[in-house]
Specification:
8 helices; alpha/beta; 738 residues; Immunoglobulin-like; seven-stranded mixed β-sheet
Length: 738
């Protein structure tokens, strides 16, 4: 048995001729598995690599967006940061800045195009983000809200407490009518007296100027307060008027009257306005002991209107125009004391300013001082706006008071001694007028039967004598203007006649839709920024009758008056002088924009006296240059209006055989960019200029030559392409300096 077993064992362990080939097969199989594993591993790695690059690309975009946020944060701290000198402490303007909290994984650099900031309210940021060599670029357009977005905007809808004749007790009006309290029920009284202990702004003690069904307002309107509107206004949707001739509104109506919350007076939905018929006219007499006034309440008459105002945030009216004075002192014009400006269609303006001893150099440094011993015509200079602009004029005119300049300044006067304050001759019983125009204008603007003092202001200085001050910085303005100017004053601006864009084509037919409307192609712009009042000059006697109404000023020349301007009335309001006296003068055809602190009347409802409102927004303010530097008056934060990623242009046919990103260049080098390589045949490169950043760009043949700066940063070049038909298009080339 044992021998058989051992025999079987020997038989099983004996060598077989197939054993070598099997081993080879096993080895080959193992090698194939290893190779397959390597292929799969490489495929996995190749699949991971794009994913990793994609993650870096997303991170680079986030870094670019962080650059936009970084610049916005700087603007929130300093609203005029973009106007400052280049900020050497900001690494993103000269090189790469680390993304905060990014542990050095991401960086950004950006350049800023400020060319339209002051003229159109736009800042353009080109920001490039970088992560591990991967870059992405985004462009953002920043804008800010301002009064120029509206045809009409107010802070408070009650009449200004200091409006001459508005209140029997201006002191009480200043206490009750100067803040936004919106609508609430109950009796009201002065602070510290019963039955309420506190200021209640919408009492019937305060006076209001509403909007009525006979008026027409085209464009967006807003108030930080609550609206006072007539329930007789046709119930038409303001956003879809369809040219309806009875529609009062043609544009969004908004208010900052908030929703009602616990302990806060506000406006319920559908009731963000107060009916003009609900407002008491009880303003007679002083505020007596125990006298109370019932607050205007929101009632059912405010519901069911298609034009019911909707909510929007508060837009503050600026409190100062000191910035305008700075600009005027720099490269503008400064005049002193009461001043008259008359625009002419040929692009000039005549200036009479008898208390101005010296103007700024931009306006010739000329003395306009009038010797008070000379009773006749006062010195007038003629300024050519086109020539001034070519010489660097920034478009700003500022009129200061005679007591405002510092001691030692040539234009500083002792109170009451200026040329405007002194009598013009020994026979005058008072010092009016301050400004005596040429004889031809006296005949034109004043009635020939009036043989007294023809000039501005009129001796018949209005039913309420609170308008004028011979030491104040007032302007009396009228005429047809060509060019771009902003007039700011320390006191008031009086509109002594039409103020018209010379390119207006319809100045006579009030029935036509284009009456007083500047064409969209016009480059003429006028801004008015009075510190106190802006008003239609209309000096009438108290208790005026048709007989003595015409004794002095030729008011008939101001019927259906056209005003083409953007105005911001900083501390008071726009209205008509002596609005409740005299004859019906038709309408005020304001074609522009009006912002004001308070509300003032322009006439009596229904056209009983003075004017009715026919306001229309100037569409050019949305897309073109508004009046010079007006946007500097807005303190609103800059917000992102548009956001997009830019694809860096490839440059396959660059000189010297370069094939590279046209958006990357080493510092202190010169490169040419064939930006028209793949463009339509016949297009020509006709201009190139630096829009943001630093460096030198020029056109060489049909290519852009760029000399990079010695610092790291980013530059945006705008180049002009002229097509075969003569039309032109502007494009941007973004270059990152490495």
């Amino acid at each position: 048995m044992m021998s058989r077993v051992l025999g079987r064992m020997r038989h099983r362990t004996a060598a077989s001729p197939d054993d070598g080939s099997a081993l080879i097969i096993v080895i080959i199989g193992c090698m194939a598995l290893v190779a397959l594993s390597l292929v799969l591993a490489q495929a996995t790695i190749n699949a991971v690599r794009p994913s990793d690059r994609s993650e870096k690309s997303f991170a680079a975009q986030a870094a670019a967006e962080a650059g936009v946020d970084d610049y916005r944060a700087r603007l929130l701290v300093d609203n005029r940061y973009f106007l400052r000198a280049p900020d050497s402490s900001n690494p993103a303007l000269t090189g790469w800045a680390d993304v905060p909290g990014g542990a050095g994984q991401g960086q950004f650099t950006y350049s800023i195009d400020t060319s339209r900031a002051l003229v159109a309210g736009e800042l353009r940021i080109s920001s490039t983000g970088k992560v591990d060599g991967v870059t992405r670029t985004v462009e953002a357009v920043l804008t800010k809200r301002s009064t120029l977005d509206y045809v009409y905007i107010s802070d408070i809808e009650s009449m200004a407490p200091s409006l001459p004749g508005a209140y029997a007790d201006p002191t009480v009006a200043a206490e009750l009518c100067t803040n936004r309290r919106w609508a609430a029920a109950g009796q009201v009284s002065k602070t510290g007296t019963s039955p309420l202990n506190g200021i209640h702004r919408n009492s019937n003690f305060c006076r209001w100027a509403g909007i009525y069904n006979t008026e027409r307002i085209k464009g967006r309107i807003h108030t930080n307060d609550v609206w006072y509107l007539s329930s007789a206004i046709p119930n038409i949707d303001p956003l879809s008027t369809g040219g309806n001739s009875t529609a009062v509104f043609d544009g969004a109506i908004t208010t900052s009257c908030p929703p009602v919350t616990t302990g806060v007076a506000g406006c319920p939905e559908g009731m963000r306005w107060i009916n003009t018929s609900d407002v008491s006219s009880n303003t007679s007499g002083a505020w007596g002991s125990g006298t109370t006034y019932k607050a205007t309440e929101l009632s059912g008459s405010q519901t069911g209107k298609l034009w019911n105002p909707t909510y929007d945030t508060v837009l503050e009216i600026p409190a100062s125009n000191s910035r305008m004075r700075e600009l005027a002192m720099d490269k503008g014009c400064v005049f002193t004391g009461p001043t008259r400006i008359r625009f002419r269609a040929d692009g000039t303006m005549a200036v009479t300013s008898p208390s101005t001893r010296a103007t700024t150099s931009m306006c010739g440094g000329t003395s306009l001082y009038a010797n008070p011993a000379t009773p006749a015509v006062q010195p007038t200079i003629t300024l050519d706006l086109g020539a001034m602009k070519a010489a660097g004029f920034n478009g700003v005119v500022y009129v200061q008071g005679t007591l405002s300049p510092p001691v030692g300044d040539a234009n500083r006067w002792v109170a009451g001694t200026s040329a405007a304050c002194l009598k013009k001759n020994a026979t005058n019983v008072n010092s009016y007028p301050f400004i005596i125009p040429a004889a031809a204008e006296q005949t034109e603007l004043f009635n020939s039967s009036y043989t007294g003092k023809k000039g501005f202001p009129s001796e018949k200085f209005g039913s309420d004598p609170g308008w004028y001050d011979c030491d104040a910085g007032d302007v009396f303005v009228q005429g047809e203007f060509t060019g771009a100017v902003t007039i700011a004053t320390e006191h008031d601006i009086a509109l002594t006649g039409p103020v018209i864009d010379s390119s207006d084509t319809n100045k006579t037919n009030t029935a036509a839709a284009d009456y007083g409307v500047p064409p969209l192609t016009s480059n003429n712009m006028l801004g008015l920024v009075p510190y106190r009042f802006l008003y239609a000059y209309r000096p009438l006697d108290a208790n005026t009758t048709s007989a003595n109404e015409t004794a002095d000023w030729n008011w008939q020349k101001n019927k259906n008056v056209i005003y083409n301007f953007a105005a911001v009335v900083l501390t008071q309001c726009f209205g008509s002088q002596d609005a409740t006296h005299g004859s019906n003068m038709g309408g005020i055809y304001l074609r522009g924009s009006l912002g004001q602190k308070y509300r003032c009347p322009v006439g009596v409802s229904g056209g009983g006296a003075a004017y009715q409102k026919f306001y229309q927004y100037d569409q050019r303010y949305m897309v073109e240059d508004p009046p010079p530097y007006m946007l500097e008056l807005s303190n609103e934060p800059w917000k992102v209006k548009a956001y997009s990623e830019t694809s860096i242009r490839r440059d396959p046919v660059a000189l010297a055989g370069l094939v590279a990103d046209s958006g990357t260049q080493a510092r202190s080098t010169t490169r040419t960019y064939n930006v028209l390589a793949n463009d339509i045949a016949g297009n020509k490169l006709t201009g190139a200029a630096i829009k943001a950043g630093v460096g030198t760009a020029s056109v060489v043949g049909n290519q852009i030559s760029f000399l990079a700066p010695s610092t790291v940063g980013q530059t945006v070049i705008e180049y002009i392409v002229t097509k075969p038909d003569g039309s032109r298009a502007a494009q941007n080339l973004t270059i990152t300096i490495t």
